[in-house]
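Exercise (ungraded).
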Amino acid sequence: MAEKASPSSNSISLKTVDGKIFKVSPAIANQMLTIQPLIKDSDSSTIISLPDVAAFHLTKIIEYLEGKPAAAPSAVDAFEAQFVKDLSPEELKGLLIAVGYLKVNGLVDLMANTVAKLIENKSVEYVRKFFGVVNDFTPAEEAKCRQEHAWAFDGVDED
Amino acid sequence: MSSSLLSNYVPEAILEQILLHLPSTTLIRFSSVSKSWFSLISSLSFTLQRSFSNPNPTLLLIQPTPSSHSTTFTTTPPPYSTHHPYSLRFISSLYGVVCFIEQSVGHDHAITLFNPSIRTYLRIQTPAVKHTALGFGFDTGNSDFKVIRIFNGVELYSLNQGGWRGIHCPYRKLEELQFSNTQCFLHGNVHWVVSPSYATKSYVLIFNMVQEKFKRMGFPPNLVFDALCTLQLKVTVIQGYLSVFDCCGIWMMREYGVAESWTKMFTLNLERGCISKVFGFRSSAKVLMLLHKKGETSLRSFDTKTQEIKDLRIKGEIIAACEDTGSLVLLDRFACSVSKSQAKRRR
């Protein structure tokens, strides 16, 4: 492999599933743990394809990695709250899957926490629909389950 | 539209991370989402991960007549009520599961495993005998809760297998030993302090829950507990150390398995009271004691950091105290687990 003058000057090209190419610095790309091994062997002509990641997701991920304040936990909290504020449940889920696939430093936990807050007071039906989970209990088993723990089914949100 | 190319599937590892952020009530509700959600939520590894992410659990007291809650503890009744002459005696608690035995005059009856966080229990049918000793522990190799009972034989109950079976014991006549009336579980082993009747030196008898084998662990030559006093000794775990209460102080094994490391760490001024039970916790610097004094029983805490004894002023009988870890272990003992319909009774 050809020698590189200064690796930090090389930008990494990432191609999303919807065909957009993003050029990011190695410092940013290295925080996506899944593609770390690919970065080492790449030069400026290499394009790394990312399944499970759309342009919208990668834009958000780069926004997070570039914008996250380095110090003060309170500043990080404010930044993270702002970052997830306007995402719809569907966008949250898509971003969660993309972030989980790329194993983005710090963002996996933020997304997991945000989705947890979203579903905390939701019904079982909402959760099945949200995650696309098929109910494989028989009606009798499910009824029994609800009866045993009836108190856990009180006060869930309408939607 | 490009979104159709995207995966719509949230991998289990990510799902687990989401669920770790949720409170017990939500998790119990979501255990009926699907069978795979159910197994994930009720698994022990999930419970353990949750308890590690909660370094300061509140205290949970099990009382026949629950007293009013406070900021430091909550109270809950036992899984079912017993009527005279039956009573529930605490054996020990582990990972949010409390083990009791039902007793009546001169006899022991069923052993019960109870998860107070989700009020689920399993009543294990046990022949009515007088036990010499009992122990409750966990087999990390098989992720299995086990109960050991010593009478004129030795038997082990495995929660996974759902039954009792005999265990070979290399020592003759265990039932003739004097056993401490408490035991504790640490590093895979159940511990009792025992002494052969009259005048010989006491030692720690351990039973390993993975290997299912007994072993002895001696005390250093300078530490001699009177044989008659053995019954009064209390064995517990304080901040990860094997600890023994005698009538006036606490001894701790500073380095596990090293007899010479037994050290008298604290002297307790009990004002002529006598300790009937101790409750130690996985990580807490505090230990609770039931203290009998002048015909009255009170719950006291001893803080190993400040060495202060405090009366918690809790009214009524206390069957057990444990940390409220929000454990969901035993959730699968309910009917909705479908596969396992072992001996169980509902409230």
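Further reading is listed at the end of the chapter. For now, observe: The interface with chain B takes residues 17-19, 51-52, 54-55, 93-94, 96-97, 100-101, 108-109, 112-113, 115-117, 119-121, 123-124, 127-128, 131-137, 141-142, 144-146, 148-149, 151-153, 156 of chain A (CB under 8 Å). The mean pLDDT of chain A is 87.
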